[in-house]
Amino acid sequence: MKKIPILDIKQFEHKAQLEDFYSNDLEIHLKNNRDFFHKPHRHNFFLCVLFTQGSGIHEIDFETYAVKPGCVFFLRPGQTHFWQFNTSPQGYIFFHTQEFFELHFTNTKLDQFPFYYSFKNPPIVNITLDQILTVKSQFMEINQEYYSDLPLKRQKLASLLNTVYIDLSRHYIELEPKKEVVSMSYISTLRALEKLIDLYYKEQKSAKFYAEALNISSKHLNRILRTTLNKTTTQIISERVMLEAKRLMVHSYNTLAEISEILGYEDYAHFSKVFKKNSGITPKSFKRNYS
After folding, report:
1. Which stretches make up the HTH araC/xylS-type domain (predicted)?
2. Could you tell me which residues are beta bridge partners of residue 142?
3. Residue of 58, 67, 243, 265 with fewest CB within 10 Å of its CB?
């Protein structure tokens, strides 16, 4: 099976002597990593990138987004993505581990921010042209601090990171009002559900199983998902299965029948029917079209 590369934060050049945080001018970063940014890969860290110039596409988990000035993208660990550019991009990029951020804050978690609290929330916010300079200055300050040699550097970076995430959350909520911050108890349940689905989606596809594992009723679990994502438990499970099916079709040498079996479907015809219902296209057509 062809593996999708998983990049570790320690693989990147750390001139600032920090192994859990990285920042760079985007043009320099892409030049230094030109061998893989245009190929599908994953990270084991959180990534945030601002584009101030350039055009192209950014594909994240088989969803395609336009790259243009003012785009800010957010990636969580495990997501598959790659970039393709039509014109030369400029901007800033930083990434960090979960521990780097949460170590410095007692009551603040990364999944409080709307772009991180679920894989189902759009991983992008488009900053208006009159606001780009303000956001750019924040990314520049993070980059300058990263390359500085001043005392309390880690604390300053964490503080800057928190501020930029708060400001970007405000932009995000303003442009995506249906994604406004909801109660932390709902977010915690949503995150726990997503972790459970990641563990068991190949074997368990019933909403009842996950509700019982979370010690809540199926009805209450659906209420939480309707409030946070406007989706049902069954939809979330199916979407996770279909995402893995697409990953295997594109990035492995398994046959469609083998993929069906890997994902817990003994009957390929049934798998094909479920895939078409969720994706609007048959597995064969998807694989052919993507190739």
Report:
1. 191-289
2. none
3. 243
Tell me, yes or no, whether 128 and 258 share the same domain. Answer: no
Q: What is this structure's pTM?
A: 0.75
Does residue 162 share a domain with residue 235? Answer: no
Q: Tens digits of per-residue pLDDT, 212-268?
A: 999 999 999 999 888 877 889 999 999 899 989 998 888 788 899 999 999 999 889
Do 153 and 223 sit in the same domain of this protein? Answer: no
| Same structural domain, 134 and 171 | yes
Backbone torsions φ then ψ of 197, nearest 5 degrees: -60, -40
Q: Smallest Cα–Cα separation from 195: which of 180, 217, 179, 210?
A: 210
Domain that holds residue 240: 184-290
Q: Is residue 1 in a domain?
A: no
Give the CATH number of the domain where residue 173 resides: 2.60.120.280
Taking residues 106-131, report their average pLDDT: 84
Q: Give the count of domains, the chain.
A: 2
Residues 6+ apart with CB under 8 A from 195: none
Structure tokens at 240: 């996770």
